[in-house]
Design a protein that fits this description.
Blueprint lengths: L9 H6 L22 H7 L39 E13 L4 E12 L6 E4 L5 E7 L2 E2 L2 E4 L2 E4 L8 E10 L17 E4 L5 E4 L19 E8 L5 E4 L2 E6 L2 E10 L6 E4 L2 E6 L5 E6 L8 H4 L2 H12 L7 E6 L4 E2 L5 E4 L6 H13 L7 E3 L6 H19 L3 H19 L14 H17 L1 H15 L2 E3 L1 H12 L4 H9 L6
Parallel strand pairs: 1-11, 17-18, 18-20, 21-22
Antiparallel strand pairs: 1-2, 2-8, 3-7, 4-5, 4-8, 6-7, 9-10, 11-14, 12-15, 13-14, 16-17, 19-20
Helix pairs in contact: 4-5, 5-6, 6-8, 7-8, 8-9, 8-11, 9-10
Length: about 500
């Protein structure tokens, strides 16, 4: 998710928009002053003392069977069910613009981790369940209170297939944040009958039955049938288009908040990225044309990221533009708000930020929302590095401004290691951990720092991790004890010295 605006007035926000530490999804233009060119940084930093860092292993695809280790989320405990592990979602959707009706058949393969008298998943909105089966046998399913409850007792250790047929008009839910671009979460119907979604931290459940928590990643096959002349875009690798049915698949684990869906009258443009990577851009003709010069930089941006963080972790990439003020790192298909097209320099860094998330947040994500800093710190720091090379600015200038912003957001929002449930994805989980990574970078030196980053991704691909795992990994990988540094940046009420 791109960085949130500051809590200042609009005028003040625009005046300080050049400030890269001002964590922010922004509507105002910003020229991110950031770090010195990477080569300069690596060259002027003393090598880390201690044993030589191990070379990272080649990037693995992660769990190909969709297994996860779900845990209850302490920040948003009403979402998710840690008693089940969804392995695969098969979503067959049909969208009717004239009646604004979504008709779906969701086929879920799941493991039962804890016995229960009923099967419970998240499903929000005015949906009617028309049929439900468990392993082929009819069952009663009902929607209420944001949940789909299926009256079938389940036994720990069993694996079952749940099929749910449902129909209704999607309705988003409020986002728990004070951000200036805090739009409702989930599938949104446009005035002309289109669809789009931004759904972090929860919002997938506004369009399909899901275990809507970050720790339960799964594989996906999605098909969307739309009227002739309309296009449907979803996350994953594009598959065949059969008439007016569009198909997408994800054979790498995906968290529910990283899925996306957009339906509209789009134009498609195909690019080729590093190593022949297919990249697809979806824009609205005559509406998003001004964004195309920046969106077409995707091959260059992905090459830049690969040179630092290792091979792009998925079989395809892309971006779809929607009528939003925000942007989101939806897996393999970034969802980007059309209003950002007014500010090309800002859009450039926003896209780099979202593509960086494909490594940090998508390939390796947080197991609970308390650790959203794991996503946003890395993407914010990558964005700053990129802007530094682009603009020829220096690391010390970025650090000085970022520290000033860090002090402000810690006072306003608290430290990033314990974010408030009503202040999701606000400035403290962006700038504060980005500065922590800057300190690691400064102490380790360029080669060792990027080796650390590549190893984090390659060794944990397809999984959800937490703070304890990250700290233990850093210490093990470097042969040094950085526990105090990490704890200080994540827990201190004031900016660490």
């Amino acid at each position: 998710m791109r960085r949130p605006p500051s809590h200042r007035s609009t005028a003040s926000r625009r005046k300080t928009a050049a400030h890269p530490g001002a964590a922010g999804r922004r509507r105002a233009p910003r020229v991110v002053a950031a770090l010195a060119a990477l080569a300069v940084l690596a060259g002027c930093t003393a090598p880390a003392e201690g044993r030589t860092l191990r070379s990272p292993q080649p990037l693995d695809a992660g769990n190909r069977d969709g297994t996860s280790t779900p845990v209850a989320d302490p920040v948003y405990p009403s979402y998710g069910n840690p008693g089940i592990d969804v392995l695969h979602y098969g979503l067959a959707l049909t969208w009717a613009p004239p009646t604004k009706t979504l008709t779906g058949t969701a086929t879920l393969k799941l493991r039962v981790l804890r016995a229960d008298q009923a099967l419970r998943l998240d499903l929000t909105g005015p949906y009617a369940v028309t049929a439900t089966t468990v392993d082929g046998a009819a069952a009663t399913g009902r929607v209420g209170g944001g949940k789909l409850t299926v009256d079938r007792a389940v036994t720990a250790g069993s694996t079952l297939t749940l099929v749910v047929q449902y129909q209704g008009t999607p309705a988003p839910v409020p986002m728990p944040s004070h951000r200036g671009d805090a739009e409702p979460l989930g599938l949104t119907v446009t005035g002309d009958g289109g669809l789009w979604t931004m759904q972090e931290p929860y919002g997938a459940s506004t369009w399909y039955p899901s275990n809507d928590q970050p720790s339960d990643k799964a594989l996906y096959d999605i098909s969307v049938t739309v009227p002739d002349g309309w296009e449907a875009v979803a996350g994953g690798t594009p598959g065949p288009v059969r008439g007016s049915t569009f198909t997408y698949s994800s054979d790498r684990p995906v968290a529910t908040y990283l899925t996306t869906l957009a339906v509209g009258q789009y134009q498609q443009e195909r690019l080729t990225g590093p190593r022949g990577l297919p990249i697809t851009l979806w824009t609205r003709p005559g509406v998003d044309d001004a964004m195309l010069p920046v969106l077409r930089k995707a091959p260059e941006q992905l090459r830049w990221l690969e040179s630092r963080f290792g091979q792009y972790p998925f079989p395809s990439a892309g971006a779809v533009v929607v009528p939003s003020d925000s942007a989101m790192e939806t897996q393999q298909m970034v969802t980007v708000g059309g209003s950002l097209g007014k500010y090309p320099a800002a859009l450039d860094t926003v896209m780099l930020h979202e593509y960086a998330h494909q490594w940090f947040g998508d390939t390796v994500g947080p197991s609970q929302w308390k650790d959203v800093w794991l996503n946003e710190g890395w993407a914010t720091y990558a964005e700053a590095l990129y802007a530094a090379e682009r603009d020829g600015t220096g690391i010390e200038a970025w650090a000085k401004r970022a520290r000033q912003r860090d002090a402000e957001v810690r006072q306003q929002l608290g430290p990033p290691g314990n974010p408030r449930s009503d202040s999701f994805a606000e400035g403290n989980v962006y700038v504060c951990p980005a500065l922590m990574l800057y300190e690691l970078h400064r102490q380790l030196g360029g080669p060792a720092f990027f080796a650390l980053a590549r190893a984090w991704v390659s060794q944990h691909a397809g999984t959800a991790q937490d703070r304890a795992a990250f700290t233990a990994f850093v210490n093990r990988q470097t042969g040094r004890d950085f526990t105090g540094l990490i704890d200080a940046w994540l827990d201190s009420p004031t900016t660490p010295a």
